[in-house]
């Protein structure tokens, strides 16, 4: 379940709340309904992005290594064929 940041429209109280789908909590300070949801540029979001990026980097590295291996293999084949012809 996602945790959202809310700001009360009435008393400007800010709070975090774990929210079920399509549920909006009431302000815990004054009880006003329909607080403003603040879009999080929070640590968890940027960490997720960073993880994605490093994962992509890992994939890129793996691909580069495979390419090198393929190259080495074809080089080996070329030398092998040359030696025996
Ligand atoms: Zn409030």
Provide a compact summary of the structure.
The protein is α+β, with helices and mostly antiparallel strands and 85 residues long.
Class inferred from helices and paired strands? alpha+beta
**Stretches with pLDDT under 50, minimum 5 residues:** none
Bound molecules: zinc ion
Count of domain modules: 2
User: What sequence of helices (H) and strands (E) makes up the elements?
Assistant: EEEH
For the secondary structure, the number of strands is 3
Shape: rod-shaped
User: What percentage of amino acids are in beta strands?
Assistant: 15-25%
Radius of gyration: 27 Å
Give the strand line-up of the largest sheet.
2-1-3
The helix content is: 40-55%
The biggest sheet amounts to:
3 strands, antiparallel
Integer average pLDDT: 80
* Number of helices in the DSSP assignment: 1
Distance between the termini: 67 Å
Question: Overview of this structure, please?
Answer:
This protein has 85 residues and is an alpha+beta fold. The chain has 2 domains: 1-40; 51-85. Helices cover 48% and strands 15% of the residues. The protein has 1 helix and 3 strands. The protein has a 3-stranded antiparallel β-sheet with strand order 2-1-3, with no helix packed on it. A hairpin with a 6-residue loop joins strand 1 (3-7) and strand 2. The chain starts with a strand and ends with a helix. The mean pLDDT is 80. It binds zinc ion. Zinc ion (ZN) binds at residues 8, 10-11, 13, 27, 29-30, 32.
Supply the key terms:
85 residues, alpha+beta, 2 domains, three-stranded antiparallel beta sheet, 3 strands, 48% helix, 15% strand, binds zinc ion
